[in-house]
Design a protein that fits this description.
The chain is an alpha+beta fold. It has 2 domains: 242 residues, Bira Bifunctional Protein, Domain 2 (BirA Bifunctional Protein, domain 2, 2-Layer Sandwich); 96 residues, Anticodon-binding domain (Rossmann fold, 3-Layer(aba) Sandwich). An 8-stranded mixed sheet has the order 1-5-6-11-10-9-7-8, sandwiched between helices. The longest helix has 19 residues. It is elongated, with a radius of gyration of 28 Å. Bound molecules: adenosine-5'-triphosphate (ATP) and magnesium ion. The site of adenosine-5'-triphosphate (ATP) has 19 residues, from strand 6, strand 10, strand 11 and helix 12. Adenosine-5'-triphosphate binds next to strand 6, strand 10, strand 11 and helix 12.
């Protein structure tokens, strides 16, 4: 036998029946986006590497060590499998002048790629659903986009998802804070770990984000950005909070919430659960008013979030919130394979009437016996078996057997009445 080929490490197949969970989540998201006026955008999975270097900042985990980058063998272009999709969405907006007539509300779903150590909730190909509100500068859109995620948890029936928010202020305010932070960290230089020492001058804010337990005390006592915010930034934050409070959204202000990417300003937020171990952040986002300019567009304010689909699905499974899998309405049993051409049009009629019809197919070239077909019908979970026997067919009849509710006996039906029967099934509550 030829050697087997496996999937790339950290990249997963999504197989039935679990793929049904994904489809369900996606359909819930589509409904919700529609209700909030967000439209779908689909951008390429491969982008020029420079997009992420400029868009995310050079001193970020993603750009420093997580990107799948390569030179196109044919023309030498430097390309990268997208590690996230905000930069791509903004690139597309600039390229197609999408903000020409005002703001845009967009959402996407799809695979992202980061070369990380695979573990529970952390993969090399993973999936994000994201929402971006582009061209709106006021705190009301910050509230809208946070409420959008909040309504998703509610629609999915998820429990125990906490919201943390913070304000990063504006660049000059961050610079003042950064200077104070560097002075403070330099004073405690000997306590820093290698990562922190390396970031001390390039990106000291990220040190606040450290997961090293030995640094927590040091980081807790560090100068806080909120003390450096001016009135406009504070006002933006307070107006957001007023709307969240009015909507009875509970949240915690986490002054150490900084987020991984450099392009954020003002509002940042995360939705966190305690039940997924250390991969507890299921959704993160914030305002990135500087990104359009950074990527060569006209300045435009923007805010967005991205959620990790694998983590949300796992949480849904933990909390037993995934709906049971759909079964076919009908399993079609055909007594004699010679009758298949006569039966096929009826199956198409039933499908045309909106029913889910699974036809028996034989595993080998000879046609299966009735008993074997009944076994498959039972295993399929179908509501009814339709039995197209040779004698019945000659009389223009078909037998119908309820499979999940044995009070009703097997009944005979005229083939000519099948369409009407199907319409009847459709109107019954399902
Ligand atoms: P983390 O701190 O967990 O690495 P992050 O800050 O890198 O997260 P973002 O870039 O903000 O994550 O991405 C948004 C969301 O995408 C995360 O909150 C998480 O749910 C999900 N996510 C990020 N990286 C991965 C991954 N490698 N595998 C699965 N999900 C991921
Ligand atoms: Mg990460």
């Amino acid at each position: 036998m030829a050697e087997k080929i496996s999937a790339v490490k950290g990249m997963n197949d999504v197989l039935p029946p679990h793929s049904g969970d994904w489809e369900w989540l996606e359909s819930m998201v589509r409904q919700l986006m529609f209700r909030h006026g967000y439209k779908n955008i689909r951008t390429p999975i491969v982008e020029p590497t420079g997009l992420f270097i400029r868009g995310l900042g050079e001193v970020t985990d993603i750009v420093e060590k997580e990107m799948y980058s390569f030179s196109d063998r044919l023309n030498g272009e430097e390309l990268t499998l997208r590690p996230e999709n905000t930069a791509g969405v903004v690139r597309a907006c600039i390229e197609h002048s999408l903000l020409h007539e005002g703001g845009k509300r967009l959402y996407y779903m799809g695979p992202m790629f980061r070369h990380e150590r695979p573990q529970r909730g952390r993969y090399r190909q993973f999936h994000q659903i994201g929402a971006e509100a582009l061209g709106f500068g006021g705190p009301e859109v910050d509230a809208e986009i946070i409420l959008l995620a909040e309504s998703l948890w509610k629609a999915l029936g998820l429990q125990g998802v906490r919201l943390e928010v913070n304000s990063l202020g504006q660049l000059n305010e961050r610079h003042a804070h950064r200077a104070a932070l560097i002075t403070y960290l330099e004073k405690h230089h000997t306590q820093l770990d290698a990562d922190a020492k390396r970031r001390l001058h390039s990106n000291p804010l990220r040190i606040l984000d450290t997961k090293n337990p030995d640094l927590q005390d040091l980081v807790n006592d560090a100068p806080q950005l909120v003390d450096f915010l001016g009135t406009a930034s504070l006002d933006h934050f307070n107006r957001l909070r007023e709307i969240l409070d009015a909507c009875q959204i509970s949240y915690r202000i986490n002054p150490r919430l900084v987020r991984g990417m450099d392009y954020y300003n003002l509002t940042v937020f995360e939705f966190i659960t305690d039940s997924l171990g250390s991969q507890g952040t299921i959704c993160g986002g914030g305002r990135y008013d500087g990104l359009f300019e950074e990527l060569g567009g006209k300045p435009a304010p923007a805010i967005g979030w991205a959620m990790g689909v694998e983590r949300v699905i796992e949480l849904l499974r933990d909390q037993d919130r995934l709906p049971s899998q759909a079964h076919p309405d009908i399993y079609a049993i055909v007594g004699d394979s010679k009758d298949l051409p006569q039966v096929f049009p009826f199956l198409q009629t039933l499908r045309g009437a909106g029913l889910s019809v699974q036809m028996h197919a034989s595993p080998r070239s000879e046609w299966s016996g009735i008993k074997a077909q009944f076994k498959k019908a039972d295993a399929s979970g179908a509501t009814y078996a339709l039995i197209f026997g040779p004698d019945e067919l000659k009389q223009g009849m078909v037998a119908c057997k309820p499979l999940r509710n044995d009070q009703q006996a097997q009944g005979m039906m005229a083939l000519a009445d099948l369409a009407q029967w199907a319409g009847h099934l459709q109107s019954a509550p399902r």
